[in-house]
Amino acid sequence: MQSQDVAPRPRPASAAASGPGVDIEQAEAALVEHYPRLVRLAYLVLPPSLGRNRRVLTAHALTQRTLPRGRTPGDAPVLPAQKTATEGRDGDPGYAYVRLRVLRTALEAARPLTFRAWPTRAQLPPLLPQVWGLRLFPRSGGADELALDQRLSALSAPARAAFVLRGLERMADADVRRVLAAAGEPDPAAALAAADAVDTAEGADALLASPEFDPCSLHARPTDLVRRRQHMKAAIAAAAAVAVCGALLGMPGDGWGPEGAAAPPYAQNPAAQAALDPAKLTLVPAGAWESSARTDFSVWPARGALTGDKALLRRALAVWARPGGTVQVSATPGTPSGAPPGPPQLLYAGEVDQSRVVLLYDGLRIARYAEAKDGGTQGAALDFARVDGASGADADALVLGRSDGNVRYLTAPWVRTAVVRDLLKPTAGTTPLARSADGVSEPFASPALQTGACRSWNVLELTDKSGTRLSTDLGELTPARLTSGRPGRPGDASAADWSPLACSLADARGQGVRSVNSWSYARQPLPDGSGTAEWLCTRAETWRGGGPRVLAQFHAPGQRFGAVAAKAENASACGSKDPHVLAGVLWKSVEGDWYLLAAGGEDTASIRATGGVSGAARSNLLAVRAEQGAQAELKGTLSGGREIGGLR
Questions:
Q1: What is d(CA 22, CA 37) in angstroms, rounded to the nearest whole number?
Q2: C-beta of residue 605 within 8 angstroms of C-beta of residue 642
Q3: Beta partners for 466?
Q4: For the whole model, what pTM was predicted?
Q5: The pLDDT value given to residue 356
Q6: Strands 328-331 and 381-386
Q7: Closest CA to 327 of 401, 260, 403, 227
Q8: How confident is the model at residue 202, as a pLDDT?
Q9: CA R_g for the chain
Q10: What are the residues facing 222 on neighbouring strands?
């Protein structure tokens, strides 16, 4: 907090008897009253190269060492009592004395170490205060504060002191020179000249009093956990420090304690504490799904060989609540990554490849915690996926892990068979996918991890008593369901439906996709008589509702894959609320002629093209001669009279 200007305190009796000198009681009164201001002064004078954490601690240490050992008649008289708006503070010789001491030691701390002289106490890291396991730094300011800090960092320590005394303390230049000289600065005039050269915007004095430079209002973050772990290993070698080391190892965030890679707990309440207790996890019995009317994650039983490992579960819950700096956290778009509101449901805990994996569900999200199987929590990972409203096919499987280009799933308890199918080879048959008794599948090649040319696209084909469904890995915890049919009434897709469109699924990776529907909305005879082209629309719906991705594709006869004619994001086209779509493409005939081909859904009454190509048709199909590279704008009219634009 910034100190407020107050009336001068009455001097103690012992100080009154000392004449112009300053005794310890008077200095202590000034130090306590103006402590935040003095620490800010030291912080601003200290070099930014120290780093924000050490700069904060050094500023506090220097300020706390300003008290005299007794009466000091020789120090105070050299300082003027400046007559300013803050006369109550500056007219106090106790404040003037401790300010001088702070300034003197801050200037000493800013001097570089040399081999010619022993370092002074101010040049060494402070012994006290210290905060073990945390880094402390002031709150970040805006662009103006950052610019001022950068300009101050380019000054020497005396120039910074001159700038701060003039701006923060509101001292006249003559008084600044006298104070700098009293603090041991050999050339105060040069320091003032350097401070004058700083190009500051109007209001720089107010910026010096901003939270950016307030070392008494701090943020806290964990220190380097790797280095702390190494130091703790060394400390264990000392038998006499066994009790101390045990206490340190139990501290949150040290990488070995009961909460692993979690950050320190900053706030505690009963609900938060209950969410961290592995004994309060929701465990669904193995057969609950058979008698339940629901088919979602809430009836998945707790599976895996480590469901009874309380230490692992405690680490997973603690990291979910407050992931430390070394934890790799990812979340699908629109998925909150905060702590669970209460005890979540345990879906799985076991070893997967070279990791120990825990899957948890809180009614809104799936959280996947993974740590190395060798016992270290360094490099732990925490992934989130939104699954609110998941039911049936949406809750058929979850990704347990990926490695070496492969993916491994945990399937729902109602899944009877699981096979792998390559969409680019729809007639090639399927490959059975072996699963453990817990529903853990063997790994198979994932399309989400493949690079280079699209030569295959493996999908998961799951069967239960209600039918067979296709799902594909798009790089998230939940696979995306593949459907086919008119928007609003899609059905389970077949491999043949998706074969010409499979490679276009790469456009939807990492977007939080829940399902992707394909729709063949038009068939168009080609103007050169070489066959009939097919127009298809794919729409990727997300778990968050917003951000759908729409592709219109043109599939000419004889081509293996469809060509993307248009794409859009956050568009209503080709969706259940607006199933209409209109798209066009420039097409080259066998004879070398170029055409603008366009098509809309069956309820499109007419299409017209303007711009680089002009033409119109009173149907849902348009074919007009065009030049290579021509650009046109498409407009369509529905049978009800409404106009629609071409998808871009």
A1: 20
A2: no
A3: none
A4: 0.60
A5: 95
A6: parallel
A7: 260
A8: 53
A9: 35
A10: 134
